[in-house]
Amino acid sequence: MTTPPPILDLSQMIERHRPRFRTASEFVEAALREAILSGVLPGGLPLRQEELAAAFGVSRMPVREALRQLEARALVEFHPHRGAVVVEISAQDAADISAIRAALEPAALRLSLPHLTRDDLALAADLIAEMDAEADPGRMGELNRRFHMTLYARAGRPRLLALTEQHLAAADRYLRFQFAALAHHPRSQDEHNALLAACRNGDADRACALVTRHILAAEELLTRFLTVRAAHSG
Amino acid sequence: MTTPPPILDLSQMIERHRPRFRTASEFVEAALREAILSGVLPGGLPLRQEELAAAFGVSRMPVREALRQLEARALVEFHPHRGAVVVEISAQDAADISAIRAALEPAALRLSLPHLTRDDLALAADLIAEMDAEADPGRMGELNRRFHMTLYARAGRPRLLALTEQHLAAADRYLRFQFAALAHHPRSQDEHNALLAACRNGDADRACALVTRHILAAEELLTRFLTVRAAHSG
DNA sequence: TGCGTGGATATTGGATCCAATTTATCCAAG
DNA sequence: CTTGGATAAATTGGATCCAATATCCACGCA
Questions:
Q1: Nucleotides of chain D touched by protein CB (<7 A)
Q2: End of a domain among A39, A65, A86?
Q3: CATH number at residue A75
């Protein structure tokens, strides 16, 4: 008797994204992306086109287009005639993403900071407060992303911002490990508050230094945790 | 009488890429990407799926998958039920790409520099020499890209390097304007030589500063040229 | 004469169908 | 019992077909 195929529970993503898009392709792409980033579809999972199509209630074609887009975003890998697989997470990959964030985010912040409005700063403060009250890692990632992007939003560089947001989102795949790696949370909030204060003062150098440290601190903690974990399981 | 449809001369890309790939999708994606980056398919051009399929000798399906990948790389835009268009170039977009390069490349260089070998440095020197003898902008872009990537190659961060190479390639769309913006070439070569010298000395701070200046200098020249040009035509 | 409406046409988006390749299974031989 | 190979099943890649949507142009009307 063969093991029953793992039921893909994508209902969350379906109801959240389906009404927002005009084409099935874009809907499937958005839903799959969130499913991967949130960990519903773990690294290494083979993505059977037929199965996904059934789960989303569409044919295989929009699934294929969506998978190609996710391939370009380095979230899935294609192996010719063998199909697509969710890319694995690893300490190396986490470091890779952190290096990219540490390069992009200070640049975005420096361009954005002079144009931040009082409203932007107030929104950022609100988001920090919301994070204090939030326990769910998924929502937490969303709030964290919005906090950071609020500070970068006035950079006036669409491509730079899109890349930054992509890699902030990519970091979400490691969020649950950050939670597991003991209470990173309160420290992270202190860093958020310090960063916001520097932005309020218009101190670009300090703000950039803080955001860089913030990213690298999280990465170091995460790398240590993932390395230990890999050593145990391997 | 309607104007004859513009014949897409993609023969260069076809013969260069066709044998390198196992699936039609990947072949079409690589060929289209190069056609856009090299300027054979200019910004604003509507990409008719049927026409491309005929030009490549395949059906519409691999074309669609390729277009989706290029969309994720911000080289084409989809408009629902109206098709894909090559994204326009502009002074703003050039500045955007430069900002990304100026963020990524010093980071890559700093990680890579300590691990550069004698052979890497020799190869970089060879590439500078080749550039001196090269007049064709297309080949020039390729050599320039290889020179830069040679210096970054030992960073040990696949995602960071892939992003860097993508945006080096994206800058190629503006290469012919850089040539037009009077002889940028010799100055650029001086900068390349200085950068290589700093790498030889293992002076990371100086190398990073030089590569940043190199990128921003090219951008300033380009922005001025494109702005003037836009003012004339507009 | 200008503008809005309606139908024809072109083109995309999605579904189905077929071919090519890989993986799994089973049997035989060592 | 293991290993090799042939064959069958599963799955992807590609082509074709159909439906949905947008654009274009003619026509009618103010």
A1: 11-17, 20-23
A2: A86
A3: 1.10.10.10
Q: Is the pLDDT of residue A5 over 60?
A: no
Number of domains comprising chain A: 2
Whether residue A3 lies inside any domain: the answer is no
In angstroms, the CA of B83 and the C1' of C8 are apart by 20
- CB within 8 Å of A181: residues ≥ 6 apart: A221, A222, A224, A225
Closest CA to B31 of B47, B51, B15: B15
Of the ranges A10-24, A119-133, B77-91, B136-150, which one carries the lowest mean pLDDT score?
Answer: A10-24
- What is the distance in angstroms between the Cα of A27 and the nearest Cα belonging to chain B? 12
Instruction: Give the long-range contacts of residues A207-213, CB within 8 A, separation 24 or more.
Output: A207/A109, A207/A110, A207/A113, A208/A106, A208/A109, A208/A110, A211/A105, A211/A106, A211/A109, A212/A102, A212/A105, A212/A106
User: Do B215 and B195 share a structural domain?
Assistant: yes
Nearest CA in chain B to A158: B96
**CB–CB contact B160 A23 (8 Å):** no
CA/C1' separation B183–D21 (Å): 49
What ipTM does this complex have? 0.91
Q: Are residues A65 and A115 in the same domain?
A: no
Q: What is the mean pLDDT of each run of 10 residues along chain B (234 residues)?
A: 53 84 94 96 96 96 98 97 96 97 98 98 97 86 96 98 98 86 71 97 98 94 83 67
Which residue is closest to B98 within chain A, CA to CA?
A160
3-state secondary structure of B97: helix
| CA→C1' distance for A76 and C20 (Å) | 23
Does A73 reach chain B within 8 Å, measured CB to CB? yes
Residues A59 and A155 in one domain: no
| Strand C contacted by B82 CB (< 7 A) | yes
Domain limit, last residue, from A35, A69, A86: A86
Number of H helices, E strands in chain B: 11, 3
Domain of A35 in residue numbering reads as 11-86
- Residue B105, helix vs strand vs coil: helix
Residue B68 sits at the chain A interface (C-beta within 8 Å)? yes
Contacts of A97 in chain B (CB under 8 A): 159
**pLDDT at position B2, please?**
36
CATH number of the domain where residue B181 is located: 1.20.120.530
Is residue A1 assigned to a domain?
no
> Do both B72 and B98 map to the same domain?
no
Q: Which positions of chain C lie under 7 Å from any protein Cβ? A: 11-17, 20-23
Contact B159 A71 (CB under 8 A): no
Q: Are residues B80 and B103 in the same domain?
A: no
